[in-house]
Automatic annotation (TrEMBL):
Cofactor: pyridoxal 5'-phosphate
Tree of life domain: Bacteria
The name this protein goes by in its record: Histidinol-phosphate aminotransferase
Coiled coil regions in record: none
Organism field: Acinetobacter cumulans
Length: 363
C-alpha cells in the first residue's frame, strides 16, 4: 500500500504527553499505594451534587445531547452575565484551544505565546503548520511588553495564560489592560484562565470582554470544579468571534452527562469555596515543607507549585515514581511541577522528595 503522508505540520508534531495515570504505574512497578500529583486535579474530586445530578440522567445515555448546549449556556449566562451567543462550549479547554487556532490561523500566519507556557499552544500552532513565535519569559512569567512587541503583520492569534501553567505565575488587571491596548484589533487574544477559580479576587477578566472585541476568555471545569474525567470547557467572546468558533465546533462535542454535571458544579458554590480552602492550606503546607528542605519554588496562584529540586528533573521524577508519587516533569531545567493534594498526599510527597534527594527537613 502506498503511504499517504500527513500534512506537514502534523508530520512534525510530537503528541502531547499527559500526566502518568495511577493504573499505568501500578502495572509498571506493582505499587498500589500511589499518590498522583501530576495533572492539577481537584483532590476532593467533584461535588456530591454533581454525582447526584449525573446519576439522575443516566437513562438519557442512549440519546444525543443538545448540540447547542442550552442548559449549560443558561447557567453560564446566569452566573457570569454573558449571553448565549457569546458562549462556545468545548470538550475541555484543550478542545477550545484547537478551535481558536483552526478558526483564525492559516499556515501563512503566526501565533505568539510565551516560553514556559502550556504545551498545547505550540502543538495547535504546529498542527496548522503556522509560524510559532515563542517569546522569552521574564523569569518564569509572561513578558507582556515583549509579547506585544513580537506581533508581526501576519500574526493572527496570541495565547496568554493567567495564572500560567506550568509556572503558576500571574499578572494583574492593569498589566493586561496595557497589553491589550498595544494589540491590533484584528489579532485575537486568548486569555486562558484554567485556574482562575482558585484566586478569583486576583483578576476579573469578564469586564474586558465589552472593551476588547478581539478577546476570548477560555475556562475549564477540569480543575477547581473537579470534572476532569468529563471534559467540559467554555469560551466567552464577542458575538462575531463566537459565531466563527461555533461554525467549526463539533455539534455534540460536550456530552449530555458532562453538561448536567457542569450545571450542578457551577451552582455548588460551597464546594468551590471548600476547594479553595483546601488548596490554600495545601499550598502553605508544600511551601513550608519545600522551604524546610532548603529548596525554592515559584509563588503560585494556581493549584500547583513549580519546585526547584536542584537536581536532574527526569531522574528525580523517576525516583519519585518508585516511591509511589507521580508529579510532572515539564521540561524546565531543575524543576518539577507538583499539584496540591490532600494533607496526607502532600505529606507523602514531601517525605518521598526528601528521601530521593537525600535531604533532611530543618525545623
Amino acid at each position: 500500500m502506498t503511504f499517504v503522508p500527513a500534512n506537514e505540520g502534523i508530520a512534525k508534531l510530537k503528541p502531547y504527553q499527559p500526566g502518568k495515570p495511577i493504573s499505568e504505574l501500578e502495572r509498571e512497578l506493582g505499587i498500589t499505594d500511589i499518590v498522583k500529583l501530576a495533572s492539577n486535579e481537584n483532590p476532593l474530586g467533584c461535588s456530591a451534587k454533581v454525582k447526584e445530578a449525573v446519576a439522575a440522567e443516566l437513562a438519557e445515555i442512549g440519546r444525543y445531547p443538545d448540540g447547542g448546549g442550552f442548559i449549560l449556556k443558561d447557567q453560564i449566562q446566569a452566573q457570569f452575565g454573558v449571553v448565549h451567543d457569546r458562549i462556545t462550549l468545548g470538550n475541555g479547554s484543550n478542545d477550545l484551544l484547537e478551535i481558536f487556532a483552526r478558526s483564525f490561523v492559516s499556515e501563512k500566519d503566526s501565533v505568539v505565546y510565551s516560553q514556559h507556557a502550556f504545551a498545547v499552544y505550540g502543538l495547535v500552532t504546529q498542527a496548522i503548520n503556522a509560524q510559532a513565535i515563542e517569546v522569552p519569559a521574564k523569569g518564569f512569567s509572561h513578558d507582556l511588553d515583549a509579547m506585544a512587541a513580537a506581533v508581526q503583520a501576519n500574526t493572527k492569534l496570541i495565547f496568554i495564560a493567567n495564572p500560567n501553567n506550568p509556572t503558576g505565575t500571574w499578572f494583574e488587571e492593569a498589566e493586561f489592560d496595557a497589553f491589550m491596548q498595544k494589540i491590533p484589533s484584528n489579532v485575537i487574544v486568548v486569555l486562558d484562565e484554567a485556574y482562575v477559580e482558585y484566586f478569583p479576587e486576583n483578576f476579573n477578566s469578564l469586564k474586558f470582554l465589552d472593551q476588547y472585541s478581539n478577546l476570548i476568555v477560555s475556562r475549564t471545569m477540569s480543575k477547581c470544579y473537579g470534572l476532569a474525567a468529563l471534559r467540559v470547557g467554555f469560551a466567552l467572546a464577542s458575538v462575531e468571534v463566537t459565531d466563527y468558533l461555533n461554525r467549526i465546533r463539533q455539534p455534540f462535542n460536550v456530552n449530555h452527562l458532562a453538561m448536567v454535571a457542569a450545571v450542578a458544579a457551577l451552582k455548588d458554590e460551597a464546594f468551590i469555596e471548600q476547594s479553595r480552602v483546601v488548596n490554600k492550606a495545601g499550598m502553605a503546607q508544600l511551601e513550608a515543607g519545600v522551604t524546610a528542605l532548603g529548596l525554592s519554588f515559584e509563588p503560585s496562584r494556581a493549584n500547583f507549585l513549580l519546585i526547584n529540586v536542584n537536581a536532574d528533573p527526569a531522574q528525580t521524577f523517576a525516583a519519585l515514581l518508585k516511591e509511589g508519587v507521580i508529579v510532572r516533569h515539564v521540561g524546565i531545567a531543575n524543576h518539577l511541577r507538583v499539584s496540591i493534594g490532600t494533607e496526607a498526599e502532600n505529606e507523602k510527597f514531601l517525605a518521598a522528595l526528601a528521601k530521593v534527594l537525600g535531604l533532611e527537613a530543618k525545623a
